[in-house]
C-alpha cells in the first residue's frame, strides 16, 4: 500500500489537501484535510447580535451573500420577524445572483479547464476543449468573465456591492430598488439569459428545463454537434470519459429548501435517501456534529445549538480542522444535485436513480439550475409591488435563533445564542462541511472521502474531476 | 513581469471582487501590460506537484519573482507555529512560504485589509493569531517587520479594502508595470494614494441629506447614515462613491453604512457597526479635518433649515416628495 498527498489543490475556493491510500492500483482510502482555521465562531462571540451581519459574509468571498442570508434568517428567527414579501423577493434576487454566478464560475473557471490538460490531447474533443476552456488563455476566460461581471451588476444595483454586502436584513433588505433600478436589473437579467442561451446551452432556457428524462437529454444531444454549445461539449466529454461512473458517495441528498416564497420554497426542503428508497422531511434536530477526527477539543457529538469550537494543537487520529456533521448519523451530500433531486426535477431524479451522485450528474444539475433560476429571478422582479421592503426588527437581548438556507454549494446553517444583547454562541455548518467532512467516531468517511475510493491510480485527473464536481468551498468549510 | 498570487488566512473575496472588474478582459489587460500570471489559486491550471515546482523555482531564485500578491491574513497561531494554515501538499505553514518568497520579490503587495492590517480574521479574541504583512492593526511590524523592503526598495504596498475594488488592484499592478509607482504614491499607511487620498463621503449619493443632517433612523431609510446608523464615510479613506462597485453600487448606495473597511482595526470599532456612538447626542466621530465647534454649529443651523422634502424622504424607503419644478427656469 502506498500513500500520496495531493495539494495544494487549486481551482477550488480556499485551501485543500487530500491524502490517498493506494492498493492494487486503486484508491483504497481517502483523507480530506481542510488546512486553514480562522475561528469565526469565536470571533463572533461577544459581539452585539446584529454585528453578525458584518462578520459572517467575510467568512467567504464566494458565498458571501449566502452567509449573510443565513445570519439574517437566524436573526429573524431570534427576533420572531419575517421579511416583507418585497424584502423576500429582493433577498432571493441577491442570493440567486450569487448562487448562479458561483455555478457559472465553477463551470468555466474551476471545472472545465481540467479537460484542456495535455493528458487529454489524444481525445477527439480536445481541440475544442483547449480552445474554449484552457485556464486563463481559453476563449471562455475572455467572454465568460465579462458576462459574469455584467450579471453581477445586479449586485451593484440591489446590494451596493459584491462580495460583502450589508443590504440583507432580518426583515428584508435595506435598499428598496426604485423604478429605474428595477429596469436595469431587468436588462442585466435579459443580457445574462441571452448569453446563457447563446453560449452555454445553444437553446432556450425553457427547453433545457423541459428535458425531463435521460432519453430526452440523449435526443437533445443527438440533435446537435459536439461544439454547438458549452453544455453540449461537456456532455460529449462526459460520455467519452464516462464521468457518470466516478465520484459516487452515499446517495443521500440533503436540501434546506431554497428561495422562500409564500407557503414554502421554490425548491423544497427535504432529504432524498436513495438507499432507504424514501423522501423524508429534514428536521434541524436530526443534525449532530462530531469532532473525533478534527484538531478540536474532544467532545461527544453535539447539536450545533449546543456546539463549541475549541482548537487544539495536536490530537491523535485528527487530520483536519473540519467537523463531521451527520444527519440521523448518516453521511449526506448537498449541492445543486441534492436540491434538484429533493425538489424532484424528473431528469435529475432519473440520473440519480440510474447512477447516483457522480461527476456528470453534479455538473448537469448545476447547469440545469442556471436554466431554472433565471426565469424565477425574472418573476420575482416582476412581482415587486408598492409594499415595504424591510420589516422593522427589535432584536431581543436574550434568545436563540437558527437560519437555514441553500447556498450555491448546498445547505448552510447558522445557530446563535444571545445573552444580554451579545452573542455567546455561534455555530455554522457550511455545505462543504457536509461534503468534505472527515471520518466520524464510528470511522465512517465523509462524502468526498467515499467518492474517491476505487478511482484508478493510473488516471490521476479523475481525482481532480471528482473533487471539483462537488464545487468545494474550503474557506466556508472550517470558517 | 511574473506575478504569483497566494491566498493566506482570508476569504478569497478580493480575488472574487477582481473578477467583477469592469474591464472587458481583465486577464488580457494585465497581459497587455506585460504581467504574466505565474500562478493564481483560483485561475491557473497547475495543481498539486506542478504548483510545488513553481513555488520551488521562485523560492530558489531560478525564476525571478516580480510581483508577490498576498490575499488574506497571515496566521501565526497556534503559539507562533503558523499551523492554523498549512499550504496544502507542502507540509509548511503559509507564513513560512510568505516570509521566504517576500525575501525574493521585487514588489510585495497586500491585497485586502486582512493581508495589509490583519482585518476581520484578527477580530474578537483573534483566535488564529492573524496579522498583516507589515502591520498588526495600526502598528507597523506584522509578519515581515517594520523595516522590510522588497527588492525594488518599497515597503509592502497595502491595497486595503474588505474586499478590494477590482480597479484598486489592477491599477496598482498596471502602475507598477508601467514604472509609474513609487513610495511617494503611497500614503502613511502604505495604501496607494490614487484611491486612498479620497474619502468615501466624496460623491455619496446621500449628500443632500448630509448637508441638512436629515438622518436615516432604521435600515431602509434614504437619509444620511452618519448621525444614527454608524456611517463613517466622512472619515474613511477610499473612492467608493466616485468609482462605483459592480457597475453602479457602493455601500452607502446599497442602503448600509460605510464601516471604514480600508482602515486598520475596522473589524473592532468598539461599538456596534450599525449604531453611531455619541456623547451628549453628538457623534464622537466627526468628519475628517472639521473642527468640532463648527460642526456642531453648522449641524444645528442646517437641521433648522431642512426642507420638508429632504426631511420626509430621509426616513422613507422610497422618495415621497419629488423636488419642486421651477416655473421660471434654472438660474
From TrEMBL, chain A:
Binding residues for Ni(2+), per the UniProt record? 60, 63, 473
Q: Where does Fe cation bind?
A: 63, 476
* Cofactor names: Fe cation; Ni(2+)
Q: For binding Mg(2+), which residues are annotated in this chain's numbering?
A: 41, 428, 479
Q: Cellular component terms, GO, for this chain's entry?
A: cell envelope
Q: Where in the cell is it found?
A: Cell envelope
User: Keyword annotations for this protein?
Assistant: Iron, Magnesium, Metal-binding, Nickel, Oxidoreductase
The keyword Iron is assigned to this record: yes
| InterPro entries named among the record's database cross-references | Ni-dep_hyd_lsu (IPR001501), Ni-dep_hyd_lsu_Ni_BS (IPR018194), NiFe-Hase_large (IPR029014), NiFe/NiFeSe_hydrgnase_LSU (IPR050867)
Organism of provenance: Zoogloea oleivorans
Pfam families recorded = NiFeSe_Hases (PF00374)
* One GO molecular-function entry: ferredoxin hydrogenase activity
Under what name is this protein listed? HupV protein
Give the highest taxon in the source lineage. Answer: Bacteria
Query: What protein family is recorded?
Result: Belongs to the [NiFe]/[NiFeSe] hydrogenase large subunit family.
| Chief location of this protein within or outside the cell | other
From TrEMBL, chain B:
Catalytic activity reported: H2 + A = AH2
Q: Where does [4Fe-4S] cluster 1 bind?
A: 11, 14, 114, 162
List cofactor names only. [4Fe-4S] cluster; [3Fe-4S] cluster
Under which name does UniProt file this protein? hydrogenase (acceptor)
Q: What is its EC number?
A: 1.12.99.6
Where does the chain bind [3Fe-4S] cluster?
A: 240, 258, 261
The organism encoding this protein is Zoogloea oleivorans
Return the broad EC class.
Answer: oxidoreductase
User: What highest taxon heads this organism's lineage?
Assistant: Bacteria
A single GO cellular-component term from the record reads:
membrane
* Quaternary structure (record): Heterodimer of a large and a small subunit.
